Amino acid sequence: EELAKKSACTACHAVDKKIVGPAFKEVAAKYRNDKGAEAKLADKVKKGGVGVWGQVPMPPNAAVSDADTKTLVKWILSLK
Predict the structure, then answer these.
(1) pLDDT score, position 50
(2) Which residue blocks in 1-80 are alpha helix, DSSP H?
(3) In terms of Cα–Cα distance, which of 47, 4, 56 is closest to 25?
(4) Are 79 and 28 in contact (CB under 8 A)?
(5) Which residue in 54, 18, 58 sits closest to 41, CA to CA?
(6) What DSSP character marks residue 8?
(7) Cα 28 → chain centroid
(8) Which of 11, 31, 49, 51 would be a feasible disulfide site paired with 37, CB 3.0-4.6 Å?
């Protein structure tokens, strides 16, 4: 969670409630049974995107290192 704060994820996301983007727990629930979720979400963090959760775009976060992105995605997917 500290890494999410440090990486500015919490400007748009919270663990358990929608802010601008979906709650991390909502993301975890949506991708729970998706075997390719880690790669998809890591790509979304790095490149940004729009349309999965509505029309509010997620900006790219290319400044977040690949290692930190992987750690963040694993943490998000671990939430219940």
Answers:
(1) 94
(2) 2-6, 24-31, 37-47, 66-78
(3) 4
(4) yes
(5) 58
(6) T
(7) 9
(8) 31
74/71 Cα distance (integer angstroms): 5
| Whole-number pLDDT of residue 60 | 95
pTM listed for this prediction:
0.92
Query: Is 23 in contact with 53 (CB distance < 8 Å)?
Result: no
Closest by CA position to 45, among listed 1, 14, 76: 76
Inter-axis angle of helices 37-47 and 66-78, nearest 10:
130
CB 25 within 8 A of CB 80: yes
Rounded Cα distance between 42 and 70, Å, is: 6
